[in-house]
Write a structure and sequence with these properties.
Helix content: 25-40%
Shape: globular
CATH architecture of the largest domain: Alpha-Beta Complex
Structural class: alpha+beta
Strand content: 25-35%
Radius of gyration: 18 Å
Largest sheet: 9 strands, mixed
Number of helices: 7
Order of helices and strands: EEHEHHEEEHEEEEEHHEH
CATH class of the largest domain: Alpha Beta
Length: 237
């Protein structure tokens, strides 16, 4: 199989990629660049095999799809050297401020950000609906779109200052309140990439500490009524 080489720019960092499937280059199409790469990654057949072992055995995923997962895993590990964290959540921007909603799978992150889009119309832009990248500094964090954007394929190739991280929980009524870094830390850790390499894992933990120290944190109990979006937005202002 002929190797496919290209350069993708994620979170402002050009990354050289050697892949096995042309569809992977197409998948990254909106993020391709000709800039010199800061680092490079290569996906081998063994990496695809490892992804298949981790995947839900009830689904028969193609090698091409599994390659995209293996690629993002390698890219995410490399981006830790650039203070950038792969996080599981749905990020929406309103008036150039980003809000990240995270929760256990099936809680309704995507449904909630859809309510925001309905509420704010053209003022709202989806940054990434599934696996955004977060660059963390002592001054705060920036959320970036990526091609890995969930089943609804909702993302934009933009960078937006992250105003808040909100842990979403289902409830009959809508209520939101600030939480401490200590209270949020278990969920933030659960929703971040967790490399097996202890050095990389320590990098992740340091970035989570920085995120929780420099970005406002909230817990939102909400139903799926349109008023949930208004309650969440007002509660984070």
């Amino acid at each position: 199989m002929e190797e496919i080489k290209f350069i993708v720019k994620l979170a402002g960092v050009p990354i050289g990629v050697t892949a096995l499937y042309g569809s992977t280059r197409t998948f990254c199409g909106e993020y391709l660049t000709e800039e010199a790469p800061a680092f490079s990654v290569c996906v081998a057949p063994g990496d695809i095999d490892k992804e298949r072992q981790k995947a839900d055995s009830a689904h028969h995923y193609s090698n091409a799809y599994l390659e995209t997962l293996a690629l993002y895993r390698k890219i995410a590990a490399g981006l830790l050297d650039y203070d950038t964290l792969l996080f599981h959540g749905s990020v929406i921007a309103v008036d150039n401020s980003a809000y990240l909603f995270t929760a256990k799978s099936g809680t309704g992150k995507s449904t909630h950000t859809r309510l925001w889009r309905e509420l704010f119309g053209v003022r709202a832009v989806m940054v990434n609906d599934d696996k955004p990248l977060l660059r963390v500094t002592e001054h705060g964090a920036t959320a970036y779109g990526t091609p890995w954007n969930g089943k609804h394929r909702l993302s934009t190739n933009i960078a937006v200052p992250l105003k808040a991280v909100c842990i979403l929980e289902r409830d009959e009524t809508n209520h939101i309140a600030p939480v401490t870094a200590r209270e949020a830390w278990p969920m933030l850790m659960q929703q971040s990439i967790r490399p097996a390499d202890p050095v990389r894992l320590k990098q992740v933990m340091c970035l989570i500490d920085g995120l929780s120290a420099n970005v406002k944190l909230y817990r939102l109990g909400c139903n799926m009524d349109p008023s949930a979006a208004e309650a969440a937005y007002q509660g984070m202002q």
